[in-house]
Amino acid sequence: RVGSKPHTTETLRMMIANVTHWLTITSLMPASRHTCKHHHESVQPQAKGFIRPVLGRSRLVLRAQEKPKTPFEKGFKWKWERPKDVGVQNVGADVRANLNVAFAESIFGADKDLEFQAKVLCEGCNGEGMLKSTTIRCTPCEGRGRQLVTRKINVKVPPGVQNGSTVRVKEQGDYGKPPGNLMVSVVAPWTDGTIRRDGADLYTDVKLTERALKEGTTVTVVTVEGTEGSLKVPPNTKPGAHLRIKNRGAPIAIGNMEERGEHYFRLVVSE
Question: What strands, in cross-sheet order, belong to the sheet with 95-100?
Answer without folding.
Answer: 95-100, 182-187, 166-169
